């Protein structure tokens, strides 16, 4: 009989919620700690589904590639992880689809970074192409600061050799995190903070936020552009309309769950994963 596996590196709140949701539904669900195994191995096979819940993008992507080769359906698929795991890939995909986002540019030198900032106008935000939780973000207000930060980045190794620069958006103390499961927007929260970084992992507080028809339409466009079965989309609400800031393919969701939104996100993820076991031989795109 088909089974849902949950591969994880650390048992966070989200993974505990998924285990409990599966227990309540009495489905065939097996949590597996990735550090206890070598990969590839004999776990699972064609028709099974894998929830890839490692903390790091590199581990998740490597894991998905490995188990997909054995015929498992991964959530999300490795190609979607690759898009969401790199901000350059995400931004270019959104740009191709005509989805509104903050102005962005890529530089490979100090001179290029200075040119980007001059065209955008200060302040700008420097982000590592690969990363989460708002780590290593820098709001840059002037040329002197940009020169200093760029010089540091260019000496930190290949991971920082492509400099992702985004126009700073005054989001008035909050942004929106929306969750899409199975292509359907299911919840949204408003993340508030006195700091310009509003991630809940960095101390932002979460409030429920209504899913308007306009927002749902935009989120469905994002899903069509990115693909996948589970996405979390970070957006800015501006006077001129919505801007998509980032798209997450392996999101934490505890702030979008339960008391805050009234939505059982974990239960919907488990239901979606279990229904995918019926698609033996089919890929998930």
UniProtKB/TrEMBL annotation:
Keyword Acyltransferase recorded: yes
Enzyme class: transferase
This protein's UniProt keywords: Acyltransferase, Amino-acid biosynthesis, ATP-binding, Ligase, Magnesium, Metal-binding, Nucleotide-binding, Transferase
Cofactor: Mg(2+)
GO cellular component assignments: cytoplasm
One GO-annotated biological process of the protein: lysine biosynthetic process
Keyword Protease tagged: no
Record EC number: 2.3.1.-
Pathway: Amino-acid biosynthesis
Domain named ATP-grasp: residues: 91-274
PROSITE patterns: ATP_GRASP
Domain of life: Bacteria
GO terms, molecular function: acyltransferase activity; ATP binding; ligase activity, forming carbon-nitrogen bonds; metal ion binding
UniProt record similarity statement: Belongs to the RimK family. LysX subfamily.
Protein name (record): L-2-aminoadipate N-acetyltransferase
Higher taxonomy: Bacteria, Thermotogati, Synergistota, Synergistia, Synergistales
């Amino acid at each position: 009989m088909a089974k849902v596996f949950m591969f994880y590196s650390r048992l966070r709140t989200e993974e505990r919620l998924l285990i409990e949701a599966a227990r309540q539904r009495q489905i065939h669900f097996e949590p597996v700690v990735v550090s206890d195994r070598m990969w590839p191995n004999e776990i699972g096979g064609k028709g099974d589904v894998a929830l890839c819940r490692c903390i790091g993008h590199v581990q998740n992507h490597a894991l998905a590639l490995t188990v997909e080769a054995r015929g498992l359906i991964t959530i999300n698929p490795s190609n979607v992880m690759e898009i969401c795991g790199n901000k350059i890939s995400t931004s270019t995909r959104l740009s191709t689809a005509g989805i509104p986002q903050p102005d962005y540019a890529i530089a490979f030198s100090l001179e290029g970074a200075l040119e980007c900032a001059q065209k955008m106008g200060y302040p700008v935000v420097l982000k590592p192409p690969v990363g989460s939780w708002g780590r290593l973000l820098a709001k840059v207000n002037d040329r002197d600061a940009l020169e200093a930060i760029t010089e540091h980045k260019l000496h930190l190794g290949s991971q920082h050799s492509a400099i992702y620069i985004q126009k700073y958006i005054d989001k008035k103390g909050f942004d929106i995190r929306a969750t899409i499961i199975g292509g359907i927007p299911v919840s949204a929260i408003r993340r508030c903070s006195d700091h310009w970084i509003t991630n809940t992992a960095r101390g932002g507080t979460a409030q429920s936020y209504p899913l308007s028809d306009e927002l749902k339409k935009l989120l469905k466009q994002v899903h069509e552009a990115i693909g996948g079965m589970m996405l979390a989309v970070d957006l800015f609400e501006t006077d001129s309309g919505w801007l998509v800031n980032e798209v997450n393919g392996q999101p934490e969701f505890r702030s979008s769950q339960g008391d805050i939104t009234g939505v059982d996100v974990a239960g919907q993820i488990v239901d979606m994963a279990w229904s995918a076991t019926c698609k033996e031989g089919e890929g998930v795109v």
